[in-house]
Amino acid sequence: MLHLLILFFATFSAAFMATVPPGLLNMNAAKTSVEKGKTNGIIFSLGVSTVVLMQATIAVYISKFLYKNPEIIDLLLKFAVGVFAFFTIYFYVAAKKKKRKKPEFVKVSKKNSYFKGMLLGAVNLLTIPYYSGLNIMWNASGWIKFQVADILVFILAAGLGTFAVLYMYTVYFNKLENKTNRFSKNSNYILSLLMLILLAITLSRIFYR
Q1: Which residues contact 209 (CB under 8 A, 6 or more apart)?
Q2: Contact 7, 150 (CB under 8 A)
Q3: CA dihedral defined by 103, 90, 142, 65, rounded to 10 degrees?
Q4: Which of 59, 101, 154, 189 could form a disulfide with 132 if both were Cys (CB 3.0 to 4.6 A apart)?
Q5: Which pLDDT tens digit goes with each residue over 74-112?
Q6: 88, 16 Cβ separation under 8 angstroms
């Protein structure tokens, strides 16, 4: 039971932090809330979170398939290194950009906020490699055992962590709007540091196998 609590907290935190920086999904959640009301903003957020649940599931089974083939475990760890290295640089570069970008909004022909959220969530192709890398790391740490309960906790935590941030943007956007630029830079620095730590841990796993 303890490892499930650790798994939930670690995955929820990783999902939360990855969704915090202002971007396509959270800014559109805020926009939907402003234009159509908070209820529609929450429905949009549920649509995004539903896709994240699906993407996290795919990520788990990709990791599980690779893990069951011992001959490619080293390749698996190298894949995780590549993922964490990419996100370390990605978030650091995003934090260093001084010019504030105009939020990117997307008009979707579908009126239903839930399906709009699902559509935009599906566009975010980095989610699967991100959760695959996390899953590999958690498995190496003994936090996930590829059992039904572990997989469900991982997937649920990923979806709830994403939804929590989108809910904040939906409900509290007016309070956050004036602090968006500083908030974005600080959160990106934190994420870059987190990815760097995970990268170092994964590298140590490779060298001491």
Answers
A1: 74, 77
A2: yes
A3: 90
A4: 59
A5: 676 677 677 778 877 877 787 777 554 444 444 443 458
A6: no
CA pseudo-torsion sign 187, 122, 81, 101: negative
- Determine the distance from the C-alpha atom of residue 28 to the mean position of all C-alpha atoms in its chain, rounded to a whole number: 16
C-alpha closest to that of 107 among 36, 51, 171 = 36
Pairwise CA distance, residues 197 & 191, whole Å: 10
- Report the alpha-carbon angle 97-56-207, nearest 5: 75
Prediction pTM value:
0.69
The domain limits of the chain are 2-207
Written as six digits, the tokens of 150 are 């572990």
Alpha helices in 68-126 (DSSP H): 73-96, 113-123
| Tally of residues, the chain | 209
